[in-house]
Amino acid sequence: MTINLITSCTDRKSLDVLYTVGSITETSTERRMKHWVGILRGASERRRAIDLYQGEHWKIARRIYTSGRASLWVASAGYGLVHSETQLAGYSATFTHPSPDDVTGQMGTSEERRKWWNLLRQNCENAAPRMREIGSSGPIMLAASAGYIDAMNDEIIDAISNGVEVVIVTSNGLDDRLQSRQVLVEGRFRNVLGGSMQALNVRVAEHIINSLDGMQVSLESARAVVADLASKSPPLKKYSRRTMSDEEVRSVVAEELKSNTRVSKSALLRKLRDQGYACEQTRFSALFSEVKTLSGEVR
To answer: Which domain holds residue 176?
Structure first.
């Protein structure tokens, strides 16, 4: 049976980002959605999703797909759920809060995330089938952050209710109704799998898929693989880092952008941490986007 991997989009794109949710001024979710869908339909330049998204997270997702071990689907705050071969425009939209392109209009609530997702699924072009239909060909494995899982909550529950085998690979807390389908990702798994914390969910998904190659993928088998991984993963090293203020982060980002306008959030955050500084990833992402927007650059 086919493994259907659903993983989140990335902010880094191989096309210029010409369309941003943050540019929409309407306040109601319904009006912003109508405006947004119209913008995307008018886009002239597009690229396959598999080629559009960039960065460490998507490099791993692409590797899983090209290995032939799974079908790949994208959970996108801009397009909803689409297949990785779907042609998409260069856009910026996210379920991550806070962010200038947060689709909730900076409200950051579950209600708004879920409303936006459900409206996208009803109105956006090139939409994938519903998860309950995708799951008829084989189990669904979701590897994404809590914000994206939360946005898809209603559709995931609908798939589970229709008998689909759903495995949720994430490090974050979930809605009570989804916790029973979760395979918990721990930061210490990086000691075995490598890479950044940002890409750890999809790295663990890859580890599960590779470990179960030729075997039945289920919640139980996935949890068994991760339990074995946990037994081999020593605790993460604790670093003594100095916490940066918002103003210090803005200053560093602005200075970096002067010499390298294409620097990514993840690369700059790693650089700062290597230099002994601390900044929580979500806070850094929001400040980075803020500075880049003010400087006239499209992130």
So the answer is: 4-231
Largest Cα–Cα separation, the chain? 53
Q: Is 87 in contact with 126 (CB distance < 8 Å)? A: yes
Q: Residue 28's closest CA among 116, 96, 109?
A: 116
User: 144 with 173, same domain?
Assistant: yes
More confident residue, 277 or 134: 134
- For 245, phi then psi, to 5°, come to -75, 165
User: Cis (ω within 30 of 0) for the bond into 100?
Assistant: no
DSSP 26: -
Tell me whether residue 36 is in a domain.
Answer: yes
Q: What is the pTM of this model?
A: 0.82
Secondary structure (3-state) at 81: strand
Q: Over the stretch 86-97, which tens digit does the pLDDT of each residue have? A: 999 999 999 987
∠ CA 81-84-86 to the nearest 5 degrees?
80
Query: Where does a domain end: 178, 212, 231?
Result: 231
Whether residue 103 is contained in a domain is answered as yes
| Ramachandran sector of residue 105 (left: φ over 0; alpha: ψ -120 to 50; beta: rest) | left
136, 173 Cβ separation under 8 angstroms = no
The span from the first CA to the last CA of the chain, in angstroms, equals 39
Long-range own/partner contacts, residues 286-294 (CB < 8 A, 24 or more apart) = 286/98, 286/99, 286/100, 287/246, 287/249, 287/250, 287/253, 288/249, 288/253, 289/99, 289/100, 289/101, 289/265, 290/100, 290/250, 291/250, 291/253, 291/254, 291/257, 292/253, 292/257, 293/22, 293/100
Asked whether residue 100 falls in the same domain as residue 247, the answer is: no
